[in-house]
Amino acid sequence: MTPDDIYALNQISGVQLDSSMHGNFSVNDMIVEMSHFLDEEVVNRVETDLITDRVRKEWSLPQDFQILETRNKEISLTINELEELAWRMAGMFDERDQATIKEMFSI
């Protein structure tokens, strides 16, 4: 991994990579290890920051240049609605759940 890669990954809260402490490692090794506790949003943010740095250097853009990834408002509303529906459905008991609960409490 390049020093820029290590710097970018160290920007994630709770991550501290130090080659003198951890030795040499490849990007693939890091992805496999970090995939166990990093969610998709964090990975996308790091990837976007790396692309931003590369584009900024290639095109000699100002330091405040930033690539932003935004989602369509309609998509966000639909996803929120589906998440709420899934949450509500998860809280409902079907007939098998009701039978199990009645059996547990000898009702």
Number of helical regions: 6
Strand content is: under 5%
Task: Give me the Rg, rounded.
Answer: 22 Å
Reported for the largest beta sheet, the result is: none
What percent of the residues sit in helical stretches (DSSP H or I)?
55-70%
| Count of beta strands | 0
What is the domain tally?
2
Distance between the termini: 62 Å
Give the overall form. elongated
Assembly type of the chains comes to: single chain
User: Uncertain spans, ≥5 residues at pLDDT below 50?
Assistant: none
Which whole number gives the mean pLDDT?
Answer: 82
Topology order in helix (H) and strand (E) letters: HHHHHH
Structural class: mainly alpha
In words, what does this structure look like?
With 107 residues, the chain is mostly helical. The chain folds into two domains: 1-69; 71-107. It has helices spanning 3-10, 19-22, 27-34, 40-58, 73-90, 95-104. The N and C termini lie far apart (62 Å).
Write the layout of secondary structure elements.
Blueprint: H1 3-10, H2 19-22, H3 27-34, H4 40-58, H5 73-90, H6 95-104
Key terms:
elongated
In short:
The protein is built from 6 helices and no strands. The protein is mostly helical. The protein folds into 2 domains: 1-69; 71-107.
